[in-house]
Amino acid sequence: MENTKRMGRVTIPTQVGFDQETIELIARWGADAIRDCDGTKLPDSIKKEVEKVYTTYFLTRGDQEWAYSNQEDLQQFYLMSEYTLAEGNTLEIDLLKGFFEQQIRIDELHDAKEWWEVIDRTTEERVAKESWSYNNGKVTIENAIPWHEYTVSFLSYAIWDPTQMYNHITNDWGDKLHEMPYDARKPKTRDHMLKILKEWLNENEDCTVVRFTTFFYHFTLVFNDLAKEKFVDWFGYSASISPDALEAFQQERGYKLTPEDIVNKGYYNSPFCVPSKAYLDLLDFQQQFVCELAAKCVEMAHERGKEAMMFLGDNWIGTEPYGKHFEKIKLDAVVGSVGSGATLRMISDIPHVKYTEGRFLPYFFPDTFHEGGDPVKEARENWLCARRAIMRKPVDRIGYGGYLSLAAQFPDFVEYVEHVCNEFREIYENINGTKPYVAPFKVAVLNSWGKLRSWQTHMVAHALWYKQIYSYIGIIEALSGMAVDVEFISFDQIKEEGIPEGVGVIINAGDAGTAWSGGENWNDEKVITTIREWVYNGGGFIGVGEPSAYLKGGHFFQLADLLGVDKEVGFTLSTRKYNQTPIKDHFLLEDVTEPLDFGEGMKNIYAKPNATVLNIEKEDVGLAVNQYGKGRGIYISGLPYSAQNTRLLLRACYFAASKEALFNSWSTTNPYTECTYYPETKKMAVINNTYEEQITTVYFEGGNKQEITLEPMGIKWFNI
Prior knowledge:
By secondary structure, the chain is of the alpha/beta class. The chain contains 18 helices and 36 strands. An eight-stranded parallel β-barrel has the order 1-2-3-13-16-17-18-19. Helix 10 (341-348) crosses helix 14, helix 11 runs parallel beside helix 13 and helix 14 crosses helix 18 (643-656).
């Protein structure tokens, strides 16, 4: 099918003084919507050129005169000081040491003895209130124990919005006003916030879509004394906590949270931490408040005849699109930044909205668009990884953000974006709202978070690379474009409801002790026996890294009997291990043409006598399978994203589900290509996921096949 010119489903940014060039790019890219962004304004002359006009609205920093006049109502952080060693009986801790003092101010309005906590980290005991005092930015501890470490958990005010600060520093905005976020929990400020929103809606009649960026609380982003990121957690709630919130929580939930429930030893309850009951209660409490108040804002936009869109970023804390309260907001749309196939699916799978939109990279900022920069390279990589996920579940729109004038200085980039826009519309029109063919079983990803963090496992700062996670997040990336239905389940769900109907394979992946592997959840008899029984009766279980890890009962992997492997932690070195010879021919290995890549892998994994080893290096098992009753267990030491690993995981799913005989339905022989079939429209697409020409054979249902050639990054459509 030719990539003919199509129009619509594309949003682009613009700015004052770039009118004619914007009109030309609207025509060239087929855009039907324009948007502003932080630091830009929409020119009136452009608005009539498009169907949709997105106007960004900052609910909690839109009125800086109010913020500066009511600083007691600013948003607050719960922070923890640096670990400080006591060398004698008196210890002084500088609370702001290591923090960026232009971002935070210590809360001296509320009683420190009531809201703060000093902890002896060596004994994990709280220091009595009478043994410490606060003055002028420092806490002094009397009767400290020499050579013990201490920390202070303290409240502070946010005196510079993290996103505006990042944009300010990145774009060198000089003397531009530092914007301060105010707290919607404060009654006076909440009333004012709704009042000025109403006024703004009345004044902006030509705005058709209110782009709430987002609602009330920013994810945790704290900068250090060098104005660089100190702690960033895209899922962090510690910047949404205030005495008002804690008092309301106690009144509603019947117990009092402690500062340690929030700062959690300085981990700030990152998603890698197994969440405590108190923290889960806090999340639910905050989500309920945010969603109910956000619903009022959306209703106001609807009353003025405008659509309401939420940006899945910045102040998104409390909205949780896969949480139980999100539906209350009644949003028309969600837009989010696409950094991978996983983040594309994180957006496109969101329920309870009319449409979704992906903001593609690169952002039109000078950190990419500068002399010597290569924005085309980043754009190609971004489109290539997102496209395979789009084939499974597309967003309804795509778009870009930043300064359009910067992008226009790179003609090759402008041309490439034109290609992306046309190809996206071609894909969307061919899919036409239909569901693609999937394997005859569901794949469930099991971790401590379950549905709440669908497509969000192992993320730290929204799709950024980390050494400790790429071996696991590759699983989610592979699944994002794979021909399987994916469900995210939690240990609590298994305990309360069992394993969902239709699930044929469970994947448990992560390092020991993390929320993703499960930590102490594997000390629960109900979890272990439910999974064992389910697999024994025909289910499939794939463990990656340190699955079911919890040292107990002579095992490190609590499902060692099911997986066929365990981890040597030193206690069984005296027990000989003889199963160390891998077999070469197996269903899982049929597409392996390059050395297997397990990423960081896992040391000291050994096979049980009955397991079938498929890969072993230096006595460490990398890949093994195990028959368990009527079911199967599979162990993989790590799975970074690649074409070969994607095919390996797909084969592992079919084998674990005992459905390998059906593997060749609607598939390709070349792992660098993928096939998607849409039964309702009788259309099929084959895509090339590389920058080189690829030849592949496509298998149709029933055994028929056809060889095709695909150009670099090419896509071919067929009517079946």
